[in-house]
Amino acid sequence: MLMKCEGAPDARFPAIFLMGPTASGKTALACALADAFALDLISVDSALVYRGLDIGAAKPDAATLARHPHALLDIRDPSAPYSAAMFREDALAEMARITAARRVPLLVGGTGLYFRALQKGLSDLPEADPSVRARIASEAQRQGWPALHARLTRSDPQAAARIRVNDAQRIQRALEVIELGGRPLSEQQRGIPARLPYRVLKLALIPADRNVLRERIARRFDAMLAAGFLDEVRRLRARGDLHPELPALRAVGYRQAWQHLGGETDAREFRERAIFATNQLAKRQLTWLRGEVDARAVDPDRDDPFDLAARAIELFLGTSRNL
Hints:
Layout: E1 14-19, H1 26-36, E2 39-44, H2 62-67, E3 70-71, H3 84-100, E4 104-109, H4 112-120, H5 130-143, H6 145-155, H7 157-162, H8 168-181, H9 185-188, E5 199-205, H10 210-226, H11 229-238, H12 254-261, H13 267-290, E6 296-298, H14 305-317
Parallel strand pairs: 1-4, 1-5, 2-3, 2-4, 5-6
């Protein structure tokens, strides 16, 4: 049971992070843990916030969500941007609601930027400006993102060194912040951020055998195709108000499907590109997770992830699981 505390949540309140690469089994484990403990789930996923991104984003199905609701799913239209700062604000509100109900928030997902923003806070950067973003996107269409990355290198070498040359979303945001703030992004990020007012148990699903994860990613993508993923993207394209530079449609799988339906690739190349991009995402997620030195690592393929996670939670909360 949670300790009683007046006012806003503070370090006496516990929270659990369940992190892992795509296709590592996070959702199934989170739901099993929610059956065993007084936990409420919050999604930490930059694609699952969008309505209509269901099959390709591996959104939990209706039966799963009926039994285990996830906060921060389907909270934005694909035409609207959603940032780490917005996530932090929304997540803190959900965490406060959960702790007020004398339960424990379990935050589950693979978006490392969101986890970092939540735990470590964010600098006070300028808010997004749709007109500036649209102009930068238009310039990228004419010149290519590598050219805009070169511009960022001239403006802010320190920020450019942290951003991959084809990372459109981060290049766009960096150039936008520089223009709106009048100073390099790296300089604007030096403010002291607010820390998360919770004590946190971090659980990280880290497969030791990358080949097993690659095989799972390929099987899952084929299952997505069989479930109607391309029809889902056709519906998004048919709206007429969406374009591939939107954050929602830069999500892995959706970008490649959009290109395929636009005639840029055949079916075989589309599948290969989407699976390759998903594997690259998993690689980046694993690199980030290995840097989380205070996380308890669990191999979902060699260990019993539920038992190991449940034992860690029992020690963290000082309570026993439901039998």
